[in-house]
Specification:
alpha/beta, Spore Coat Polysaccharide Biosynthesis Protein SpsA, Chain A, 2 domains, eight-stranded mixed sheet, three-stranded mixed sheet, 25 helices, 51% helix, Cellulose_synth
Length: 708
């Protein structure tokens, strides 16, 4: 009703042709129509959120461990500099230590950097796992990432078992020794000839010319397939299979980034272990809950609905989030409300990590009612060849030419052609008739690393918004591709994120034109004493009152909500703007999309400022020029508006321009960190001098244009 009343006001008070401010008024009306439309779309991901619970003890009662399905876990890394090997192997060790029959687990590491340092780190992890896994299971250690566990416990803590203190100290020493060896090699940047003798796999790098030009490197470091010859831990128990893969890279072939790496892993794993369930996690996202596999299987193995489920998506959570989440990286409302409502509307989207897949659905199979699996008679179809033979025969599955003239990347596996390969893959699976599940357990399943600088966050959102908008404009648009395949409410729910990018146009208009019109005294909102101001006031109070309650319900703070609003403005005016522009340019043939790996480690000073919740600028990015210019435009307009109110107090300027000045003042408050970075900070995280000068010139120029 409030929206309709605002529309009526805009139409009834439209300035006459030739009157000053007519086009500014029409532009603002168009922006408000877009906001109204988008608000309606967002309600589809709020109407009926559902939250699920599992009963793992029933799984054990119904299925013995011998008949539990095999689970293939896939970890992807791309650059040993941006994604340090010690972080990668902590993720690997955490998933190796699941409370699940080890002979049913197979862990695959895809190294798209083709780094022998990463291979060395994984080799060290395979040896350490013989001590770490029995320690975890004997003392029920949580979490099972060694780095996280040892950073949160000390020998001074009162252990219930006297022997545990001794065991804890010895395991910690083994871990620290391993970490030191890996860090030394990482810093050195190469493997010595002496270390190369430790494993035959290092010979593969004698043939590597660069990380973008090398043969397939496949090494089975632990072979857990055959119980008779299986590698054992310190307690004599079998270890999970552990495989290293660096797929073939050649300059003349496009490798399709993470999507291509996952498809290579899917094919290689189908020959080695062929687990019916696949879990993929990012290399920085360690397992925080050793029961996550059993939780997921409660859905897949449910006797009534399990056969319909293609994937179970866990939320992304992060360990380096500050109290008030300065960059709004946790996306509390998205994971707390929106994905749960998507689940109710037909199934959540696939978000690229922390997701358990049914192998056959991921490989392109359409859902049929008769495809119900009898888990008690299910055979994983393990190949009987030796590890040496498999290393040779599986190489072709990860070659550059294997996918030529096949459906891989089109109908099979993770789909290609979009920066957000996860969203399009999940949508295509749902359109083949499968259902998906969103599971948000009380104990977090996976914990990763969030961006620690503003630029990292903005670039990440730029990639997401660009990829989502490309999907909306393609044949995979849910309203077209999903027609009669998925429910209408799910089609519209997808549009909530697919339309992130075009939000930039209406937002930029609202950020710029009302402020510039203050200088010329052009009123674009009702007078303060007019009844027409009530719909505007109601919508402001209702919308943001609901937003605050929703954010607090999701576990946030008031300051966190304010930071979230700031990032909302920053993302829409930069990330979405650049994502929108590049999508249009790509459609016109002027631009190509790439994949940017977000840095997982930060400089010590950067990390310190992040912990203190000080926004990091530092880099001379075009995004910062836009932010700074918009902030200064609003600052100049706000000062000019206050000046106009003081000077022209008798002409009721305040009554006419009150809402515009209020909007401008709120934008000034939101941009306070930008002003600090421009003029007051002296640390390396301040706004670069070149950005400061350029933004001042651009803001002054904008005001001159508005005046004349």
């Amino acid at each position: 009703v409030g929206i309709c009343l605002i529309c009526v006001y805009r139409v009834r008070h439209l300035p006459a042709s030739g009157e000053v401010g007519r086009w500014a008024w029409i532009g603002l009306f168009m922006a408000e129509l877009w906001f109204s439309f988008y608000w309606i779309v967002t309600q589809f991901v709020r109407w009926n959120p559902i939250y699920r619970y599992t009963f793992k003890h029933r799984l054990s009662q119904i299925y013995k461990k011998e008949v539990l399905p095999g689970v293939d876990i896939m970890v992807c890394t791309a650059d040993p500099v941006i994604e340090p090997p010690i972080m990668v192997i902590n993720t690997v060790l955490s998933v190796m230590a699941y409370d699940y029959p080890p002979q049913k687990l197979s862990i695959y590491l895809s190294d798209d950097g083709g780094s022998e340092i990463t291979f060395y780190a994984l080799l060290q992890a395979s040896r350490f796992s013989k001590h770490w896994l029995p320690f975890c299971k004997k003392y029920r250690v949580q979490p099972r990432s060694p780095a996280v566990y040892f950073s949160t416990t000390t020998v001074a803590q009162p252990f219930h078992d006297p022997l545990m203190a001794t065991h804890w100290s010895s395991i910690k020493k083994l871990y620290e020794d391993m970490k030191k060896r890996i860090d030394n090699i990482t810093e050195l940047g190469q493997i010595s000839d002496e270390l190369r003798q430790e494993h035959r796999g290092f010979r593969e790098w004698d043939l590597v010319s660069s990380k973008r030009d090398h043969q397939t490197i496949l090494q089975i470091l632990i072979d857990g397939r055959d119980p008779k010859v299986v590698d054992a831990d310190d307690e004599g128990q079998p270890l999970p299979t552990l495989v290293y893969l660096a797929r073939e890279k050649r300059p003349q072939y496009h490798h399709n980034f993470k999507a291509g790496a996952l498809n290579a892993l899917i094919r290689v794993s189908s020959r080695i272990s062929n687990g019916p369930i696949i879990l993929n996690v990012d290399c920085d996202m360690y397992s925080n809950n050793s029961e996550s596999v059993r939780d997921a299987l409660c859905f897949f193995m449910d006797e009534e609905k399990g056969h319909e489920i293609a994937y179970v998506q866990y939320p992304q959570t992060f360990e380096n989030i500050t109290k008030n989440d300065i960059y709004s990286s946790s996306q509390r409302v998205f994971y707390g409300v929106e994905l749960a409502a998507l689940d109710a509307n037909g199934g959540p989207c696939y978000v690229g990590t922390g997701c358990f897949h049914r192998r056959e659905s991921l490989c392109g199979k359409k859902y049929k009612k008769e495809c119900k699996v009898e888990w008690k008679t299910q055979n994983s179809g393990k190949v009987k060849e030796s590890a040496r033979v498999l290393e040779q025969t599986c190489r072709v599955l990860a070659s550059c030419t294997y996918e030529e003239n096949t459906q891989w990347g089109k109908e099979m596996g993770v789909l290609y052609g979009y920066p957000v390969e996860d969203v399009i893959t999940g949508l295509s699976i749902q359109c083949r008739g499968w259902k998906s599940i969103y599971f948000r357990p009380e104990k977090k399943g996976f914990i990763g690393v969030a961006p620690t600088t503003l630029l990292q966050s903005l670039v990440q959102h730029k990639r997401w918004s660009e990829g989502d908008f490309q999907i909306f404009l393609s044949k995979y648009c849910p309203l077209v591709y999903g027609h009669k395949k998925i429910p209408l409410q799910l089609q519209i729910s997808y549009c909530c994120s697919l339309l992130w990018a075009p939000n930039c146009l209406a937002t930029l208009y609202y950020l710029v034109f009302p402020s510039l019109c203050i200088i010329r005294g052009i009123s674009l909102f009702p007078k303060l004493r007019s009844l027409s101001v009530l719909p505007f006031a109601y919508i402001i109070i209702a919308k943001y009152g609901y937003s605050i309650v929703e954010f607090l319900w999701c576990g946030g703070t008031l300051q966190g909500w304010w930071n979230d609003q700031r990032m909302w403005v920053f993302q829409r005016s930069t990330s979405y703007l650049f994502g929108f522009s590049e999508t249009i340019l790509k459609m016109l043939g002027f631009s190509n999309s790439g994949f940017v790996v977000t840095a997982k480690m930060a400089d010590e000073n950067v990390s310190q400022r992040h912990q203190q919740e000080v926004i990091e600028f530092g880099a001379p990015s075009p995004m910062f020029k836009v932010l700074a210019t918009l902030a200064l435009i609003n600052l100049f307009s706000f000062v000019g508006g206050i000046n106009k109110v003081i000077i022209d107090s008798k002409t009721q300027v305040l009554d006419q321009l009150a809402l515009q000045i209020l909007l401008c003042g709120l934008l000034v408050l939101i941009n306070l960190p930008v002003y600090q970075g421009l003029f007051f900070r002296k640390d390396k995280g301040r706004m670069p001098t070149s950005v400061t000068y350029q933004s001042i010139i651009l803001a002054i120029f904008a005001h001159l244009v508005a005046l004349y």
